[in-house]
Structure formats: structure tokens, C-alpha cells
């Protein structure tokens, strides 16, 4: 058990001080850049950052666009959609040069281009945790509302809003990132526990105590994250709260935050939870815990399905997906977590064409189908959620892996998916919560209210 869960405090601190901004790439994008950064490569002659990959797709006769990303899988998706676009739009042919940069380098390069007014690509991915850095002052991206309009009634609004400012929207999301509960149904059934009876956190705790007794303490009900704020986002959404207000001012001393930490602290003391290996479950140490059968349940966004297939294939057929427990029945049971908003630069000479293409690539049913089938993300266009030929295709690798169908759960909670704002002060919040509060409370048993008050004082110095 110690091998599975306990890690050095330093590793917990390192693991995702930006943990709540987990994104939608092959691994947690902000996480992977923090945990295993690639060496920054620069040309001695030009001092330019070298790209990890560059490719050009489309006819030479087409309108040429530049697109930057920090995840090569995103480029692959755009390239496939570009080929489809060119087939369907013979009068609007496009050629795109895709450039994949290291995570931090790409965002810094885009910030510099915006500041200098030159050098920005036509289209660029911006990770959710970085997006607030681009909304300070005058936004240097094309307003996308008129391009979104044909899809707006069917798109989860909270996912559009996180890439907006003053009621205008600038980024096109990849996924909803709806948080669900993952239950090891095979494991729980072995010990006489039916996850379907778990509706509230009290039910969850009672199941944990039963599991502890039945397994002689060999299996933990869950892990308590010390390097990520997903549990806190879920708790705030359930309480319809946010730790920043409409003006971007932070207040972490709210019950949506304190109640969850206090509850997790109690679980740790009761022996039904323990600090999560690696700080949170979306790490190699976290995958090991799941794969070892030492953890029975945890909340995570639906994009975590790909982690199961990529890192825990032997767990196929064991896990079920369900709505998250709540404090009181009737509360909303989900929150959108992670994401990448794709923007069009005001520097582009082809703003309308670039905007039309990126909306097509990410919001059209053609794009959403590929986002689901290839990337394993929960599409933001809810029209696709009703197409059972796609959502219940038994040959689909995600459908085949889990005991329950992810879209059955999505359709149940579709009106309950909250959103927590990402604003400039969010990075300071995450630093205090992930590096101090969670570690001190869950590893060392510190007083939750005192820790949050101290954190608020530090955050206030940044406001």
C-alpha cells in the first residue's frame, strides 16, 4: 500500500501546481510539461525556438494558413479535418502548415507575438490554464460568436464561456471534460458493494468503511489529491460556487472548498482514503494504483477514459462510469475540467476562412465524430450524444472497455455540468492550494480553515 500511494512531499508538490488545468492531449498537457519538460532547443543563429514537428497539408493552390499547437495529436485531427474540408469546399481550398512546439514555449511565443503585433499564426491552440494570460487588456483574437451561431443551441455553454471575456467568445473547445465517477465495479462487487446505490458523499463514505472492513484494509475507496484541484472544482460546482467572482477577485475561504478538504481529511483519518500517488490520479504513479487494484473509485473528467486504454489496458471490463456523488441529492453532479481553446489571431490576413475552418473542425458533427472516435473526448456538440450508431457502437474501443456507456451518463447529467472560471489570479490560487493547502491538510493533518485563510492572504498579495 505504501508503494502504491505514498510519495515524497516534494514529488507531490511538483506534481501539478497547475493541476486543475489538466488538458485534453495524449497525457495531461500542463502536467506532462511540468513533470517531464523537454529541453528547450534554440538555434544559435536565430535564437528561435525549434519545433517538435512541422508538416504542411493541403494543395499549393489553397489559401495558406499557419497553425501552432503543443500536442501533435491535435495537429493530426486538424489535418484529417482539413482534407474533409477541402473535399466539401472546392471553392475554399486551404493549405495549413502545422507546427508543434513544447507547451510552455508555444504559449510564450504567442504572448510575444501578441505584444509585438507581429509573428502570430493564423490559428493557435491555447490551453485552458494559459487562456487568462491572453484576455488581459484588449484580446488579440477574433471574436468567434458569429461562427459559433449555427451550433450554439447544441453546444454546452459553460465550455464556450471559459474561453470568453465580457460576454464574447474567442476560443473553440475540444471537449466538455465532464467530470464523472469511475468505479471499479468488479472490485466493489467482490466485497458486496453496489456502486449504483451511491448517491451522496455520505453513501460514498459508508461504502468506503464497508470496503475497508471487508478487504481488511487492503483496498482504499479512493485517493485524496494533494497536487490537483479536480475534487475542489467538483465540490464548488455542486455548491454552485466559484473561488473567483465576476471581477476576477479570488476567495478560497468558501464552503465549496473547505467542505471537500475536511471530508477528505476525515476519510484519510478513517483509513478509507490516502494521499494519491504522484499528487493526483493522472500521473504514472496514479495509473499504477488503479492498475494494481488498490483504489476503487475516483472522480475525473471523461477524457480520462483514454488513460485507461493507454496505460491500464488490463483493466478492461472492470470499470463503470456514473454520475458523481453530491452532498445533498438534487445538487448538480458534474463540472467541466481541462481543455484547449483554439483561437484565430487578429494578425491573420484570412480571419474569416480560418474561423470557419476551426469551427468546422471542432464543432461540426463530422469533427465531433472524429474527436470522439479517435481522441476519446466527450464532444461539446450535444447533437452527437443522441446518435446511438456512434455512441453505442460496440466496436468502439471506449464503449467496449467500460461496463457502462459514457454517453448514457452524459445524457443524464447534461444539464448539470458546471464550470469554474479560469482568470489571471487562477495560477496564484493553484499554487497556494496545490503546493501548500492540500499537502498540509491531507498529508500532515493541518487545520483546513487556518490553511485556507493563510492561502487567501498570500493570494491577496497577488490581486
Oligomer kind? single chain
Parts with pLDDT < 50 across at least 5 consecutive residues: 1-47
Overall pLDDT level: 89
Secondary structure: number of strands: 14
What general form does the structure show? globular
What is the gyration radius calculated from CA atoms?
22 Å
Instruction: Report strand %.
Output: 5-15%
Q: Which range best describes the helical content: under 10%, 10-25%, 25-40%, 40-55%, 55-70% or over 70%?
A: 40-55%
What is the CA–CA distance across the termini? 41 Å
Alpha plus pi helix count: 20
Largest sheet: 5 strands, mixed
Strand order of the largest sheet: 1-3-2-4-13
The assigned structural class equals alpha/beta
Task: Tell me what you see in this structure.
The protein is built from 20 helices and 14 strands. It has 463 residues and is of the alpha/beta class. It has a five-stranded mixed β-sheet with strand order 1-3-2-4-13. It has a three-stranded antiparallel β-sheet with strand order 10-7-11. The chain is globular, with a radius of gyration of 22 Å. The relative contact order is 0.18.
Amino acid at each position: 500500500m505504501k508503494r502504491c500511494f505514498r510519495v515524497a512531499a516534494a514529488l507531490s508538490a511538483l506534481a501539478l501546481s497547475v493541476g486543475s488545468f489538466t488538458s485534453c492531449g495524449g497525457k495531461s498537457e500542463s502536467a506532462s510539461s511540468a513533470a517531464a519538460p523537454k529541453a528547450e532547443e534554440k538555434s544559435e543563429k536565430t535564437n528561435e525556438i525549434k519545433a517538435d514537428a512541422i508538416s504542411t497539408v493541403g494543395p499549393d493552390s489553397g489559401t495558406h494558413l499557419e497553425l501552432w499547437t503543443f500536442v501533435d495529436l491535435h495537429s493530426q485531427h486538424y489535418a484529417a479535418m482539413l482534407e474533409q474540408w477541402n473535399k466539401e469546399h472546392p471553392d475554399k481550398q486551404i493549405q495549413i502548415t502545422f507546427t508543434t512546439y513544447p507547451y510552455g514555449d508555444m504559449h510564450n511565443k504567442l504572448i510575444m507575438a501578441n505584444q509585438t503585433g507581429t509573428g502570430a499564426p493564423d490559428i493557435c491552440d491555447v490551453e485552458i490554464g494559459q487562456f487568462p494570460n491572453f484576455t488581459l487588456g484588449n484580446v488579440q483574437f477574433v471574436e468567434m460568436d458569429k461562427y459559433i451561431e449555427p451550433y450554439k443551441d447544441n453546444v454546452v455553454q459553460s465550455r464556450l464561456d471559459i474561453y470568453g471575456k465580457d460576454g464574447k467568445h474567442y476560443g473553440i473547445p475540444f471537449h466538455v471534460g465532464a467530470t464523472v465517477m469511475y468505479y471499479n465495479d468488479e472490485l466493489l462487487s467482490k466485497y458486496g458493494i453496489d456502486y449504483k446505490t451511491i448517491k451522496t458523499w455520505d453513501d460514498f463514505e459508508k461504502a468506503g468503511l464497508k470496503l475497508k472492513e471487508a478487504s481488511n484494509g487492503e483496498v482504499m475507496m479512493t485517493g485524496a489529491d494533494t497536487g490537483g484541484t479536480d475534487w475542489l472544482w467538483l465540490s464548488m460546482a455542486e455548491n454552485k460556487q466559484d473561488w473567483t467572482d465576476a471581477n476576477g477577485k479570488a476567495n478560497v475561504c468558501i464552503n465549496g472548498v473547505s467542505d471537500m478538504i475536511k471530508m477528505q481529511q476525515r476519510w484519510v483519518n478513517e483509513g478509507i482514503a490516502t494521499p494519491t500517488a504522484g499528487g493526483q490520479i493522472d500521473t504514472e504513479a496514479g495509473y499504477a494504483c488503479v492498475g494494481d487494484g488498490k483504489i476503487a473509485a475516483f472522480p475525473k473528467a471523461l477524457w480520462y477514459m483514454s488513460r485507461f486504454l493507454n496505460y491500464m489496458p488490463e483493466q478492461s471490463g472492470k470499470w463503470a462510469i456514473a454520475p458523481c456523488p453530491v452532498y445533498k441529492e438534487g445538487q448538480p453532479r458534474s463540472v467541466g475540467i481541462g481543455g484547449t481553446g483554439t483561437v484565430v489571431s487578429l494578425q491573420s490576413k484570412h480571419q474569416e476562412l480560418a474561423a470557419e475552418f476551426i469551427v468546422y473542425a471542432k464543432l461540426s458533427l463530422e469533427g465531433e465524430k472524429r474527436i470522439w472516435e479517435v481522441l476519446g473526448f466527450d464532444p461539446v456538440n450535444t447533437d452527437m450524444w443522441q446518435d446511438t450508431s456512434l455512441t453505442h457502437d460496440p466496436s468502439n474501443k471506449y464503449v467496449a472497455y467500460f461496463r457502462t456507456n459514457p454517453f448514457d451518463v452524459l445524457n443524464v447529467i447534461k444539464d448539470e455540468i458546471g464550470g469554474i472560471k479560469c482568470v489571471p489570479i487562477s495560477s496564484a490560487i493553484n499554487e497556494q492550494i496545490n503546493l501548500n493547502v492540500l499537502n498540509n491538510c491531507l498529508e500532515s493533518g493541518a487545520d483546513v480553515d487556518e490553511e485556507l485563510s493563510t492561502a487567501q492572504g498570500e493570494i491577496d498579495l497577488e490581486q
